[in-house]
Design goal:
about 290 residues; alpha+beta; four-stranded antiparallel β-sheet; about 20% strand
Length: about 290
């Protein structure tokens, strides 16, 4: 029988990753950011949407099985996750980790919602075009300019399935661009002697850090990027590291005065779009 991807649970945070926050009962603490009571759950029951990566109804993506591709990627990383970050000085390993981090960032359903908002804003803009105007000039994020017919472009934006297509294609087309940005920056690992770091449903967090410009992104000098690896390991991408592939203990981190002096778990709590996950319950009111 053919599988119906539209009805399947598609996890946007890999289960193997969240299992590192499991306790002896194979559960982690889930803290919804909408104010609901926190609770314990297995990783299989959180951070998923039904049919999120389904492509069978998208004509331009029928050849892809995005959920299966993501599953294959996770199968490569899962067995060696705990030790994978021990040798981030190896360029090949660092590049592969950067790709994984990029995909993790791009696969979140919030990006699908962002597509919907952008398309709606564009439709609003097109509605103000003079009736006699037939064509407009548009520029993509990578700087490519093209001329399109307003009617064709409006029809494209009004098709709800296109939001999903752009979401899936974006995972594929933007991964290399983002991973190269991450790869070129300095990485360091902060280690805690006991389980301490929390994570979220959107674990790659961009932090302003020392960036001076009013707007900033992953490539902006001075920004810092946080990614919890396990409850005892945190990846920090920052220009402030004295050299790439640094490893320090949590107690020594304050000595790096150039880095933003913030509590380690603040970026993850702020990064959360739906949930914060932890190995032990957090203090009530912290989220």
């Amino acid at each position: 029988m053919k599988r119906n991807r539209k009805t399947e649970r598609h996890h946007y945070v890999p289960q193997f990753y969240l299992r590192h926050w499991h306790n002896e009962r194979k559960k982690l603490w889930v803290h919804p950011i909408n104010g609901n009571e926190f609770y314990q759950s297995g990783s299989h029951s959180v951070a998923f949407e039904k049919g999120l990566y389904a492509t069978e109804t998208l004509q331009d993506l029928q050849a892809f099985d995005q959920e299966a591709d993501l599953g294959k990627l996770e199968a490569l990383f899962a067995p060696r996750w705990s030790d994978l970050f021990e040798n981030i000085a190896d360029p090949r390993r660092k590049k592969n980790i950067a790709r994984y981090l990029s995909i993790q960032h791009l696969r979140h359903p919030s990006r699908l919602e962002e597509n919907k908002k952008r398309n709606f804003a564009m439709l609003e803009l097109l509605s103000r075009a003079p009736e006699a105007q037939e064509k407009i000039e548009i520029q993509t994020l990578d700087g490519i300019t093209s001329i399109v017919r307003i009617k064709d472009y409006r029809d494209f934006l009004q098709d709800p399935s296109q939001n999903h297509s752009i979401f899936i294609w974006g995972m594929r087309s933007l991964t290399e661009e983002l991973s190269e940005i991450l790869f070129q920056r300095r990485w360091g690992i902060v280690e805690s002697p006991s389980p301490f770091f929390v994570t979220s449903d959107s674990p790659l967090k961009l932090w302003r850090g020392g960036a001076k410009s009013p707007t900033f992104g992953f490539r902006t000098p001075g920004t810092e990027i946080f990614f919890p690896i396990t409850p005892q390991k945190l990846l920090v991408i920052s220009d402030a590291w004295p050299h790439d592939s640094s490893h320090i203990s949590q107690k020594d981190f304050p000595a790096f005065a150039r880095m933003t002096p913030i509590p380690f778990n603040v970026p993850q709590i702020q990064a959360a779009k739906r949930f914060v996950f932890s190995a032990t319950p957090l203090i009530p009111g912290i989220i």
